[in-house]
Amino acid sequence: MAGVITASEPSWIAPFTGLSPRQFGKLVTVLRRDGADAVRRGRPWSLPLEDRALLLAAYWRTNLTMRQLAPLFGVSKSTADRIIDSGRCSPSSPACGSPRTPC
Known about the structure:
The protein has about 100 residues and is mainly alpha-helical. Helices cover about 50% and strands about 0% of the residues. It contains five helices and no strands.
């Protein structure tokens, strides 16, 4: 889809994440290593891991609603909601309950 925000265009990374493209690349590498891009049952993600991380960072940094973010990334509001929910800490998450990681 033309005219959407994507991590493949480095100029979008800094304004929406506050990270340099190199730092963002390291973040995606850590996410991938921790299994964020593992193949799971069910429907596959419509966005690649890099774009999902960018959407989540934009949500946290800009305080835009899912209804505002969805068209910027070329996805539905429901997809934006699922991406944001998948990035939140859950009770089954190993980091949940850690004094350094609020849930």
